[in-house]
Amino acid sequence: MFEALKLAEIAGEEDEVPIGAVVVKDNRIIGRGYNQVEKLKDSTAHAEIIAITAATNSLGDKSLVDCDLYVTVEPCLMCTGAILLSKIKNLYFATFEPKTGACGSVYNILEDKKLNHDVVVYSGIYEQEAKEIMQDFFIKKRLLKK
Fold first, then answer.
1. 8 exposed, middle or buried (CB, 10 Å; 0-12, 13-18, 19+)?
2. Residue 134 CA: distances (Å) to CA of 84, 116, 127, 129, 131
3. Which pTM does this prediction carry?
4. How many Å apart are CA 132 and CA 36, to the nearest integer?
């Protein structure tokens, strides 16, 4: 999660919503990502999507069956879908996202037993650190608007 937090800070420095993500297999990071929506002018350039893409490229396989995803903020619907489709084994996230979260906040997609893949979800890992990064970013954004 420390690497994901570092990536979130990089995103914030680049004026992106500060979210970072890493994919881990056998205790080794095989994919990294941070939000690049503004930079790439792409609404799908979320940290999780970029990390998953990097991991599948690293393995040369669309399936991340024995991999874990660490992300600083609860994934949205799109990212939760990507987690399911890539067959991530475990999801670890730091803080809940009360407006768009799809892993317990607004929705809880990964708990739906109708789906063809189970992901074990762990939340609250370094929650305060992730919250502070997000809060600091949005405080600065609001101050710049004044």
1. buried
2. 26, 33, 11, 9, 5
3. 0.95
4. 20
Instruction: Indicate whether 117 pLDDT > 80.
Output: yes
pLDDT digits (tens, 9 = 90+) for 89-108: 999 999 999 999 999 999 99
State the Cα–Cα distance between residues 33 and 68, nearest whole angstrom.
14
* Residue 143 confidence (pLDDT): 80
Question: Would you state the pLDDT for residue 5?
Answer: 98
Cα gap 97→59, rounded to integer Å: 30
Token pair 């890493």 is at which residue? 22
* CA nearest neighbour of 76 among 35, 115, 40: 35
Question: Whole-angstrom Cα distance, residue 92 to residue 137?
Answer: 22
Annotated active-site positions, please?
A: 48
CA atoms within 13 A on the CB side of 36: 13
Buried residues in 113-130 as b, exposed as e (16+ CB within 10 A): eeeeeebebebebbeebb
Instruction: Report yes or no: 55 and 34 within 8 Å, Cβ to Cβ.
Output: no
- pLDDT of 78 reads 98
